[in-house]
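Hi P.,

Sorry for the delay on this. The queue was packed all week, but I finally got your sequence through. Input first:
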Amino acid sequence: MNKKYNFIKSNTLLLDIGCSPGGWSQVAKQVIKKGKIVSIDLKHMENLEGVKFIKCNFMDPDSQSKILSIFNGKIDVILSDMAANTTGNRTLDCIRTNLLGAEVINNGSKMLKSNGTLIVKLFMGEDFLEVKNIAKKKFKKVDFFKPESSRGESKETYIHCNSLKAL
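Then the structure:
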């Protein structure tokens, strides 16, 4: 994770959406010692000590209720590395992934503590600004970063949202 975003502490309650194969959960586990990590995906993730994996669909309201009950309340950090299955049509793949990102912003913002952090993978494309505007309506701070691990030609970027606005 980018050192600029050093928002994970030892006691963080963290939800990793679209976690398979488990890279972000592994990195978070190195820091989180007293908190809790719940990782979810439609795909399988190998067991990782100290991480609770649930095979479920984040978009399902029942899954969201189950997640909140595991945390026993609101969450500090939500990371989403979720992307739509690719079709080969870059424009369509971008739109579908950004639609997932918008849903994570909308639903995740309801699950976060007021000073919570939400990080979501997006692709630069025609609907990128629309997703950015959704985030700006819900969060006080919105910015972007591209991880060093991302290929230079990739359209992949991450939106970093912090501190919910009072609605």
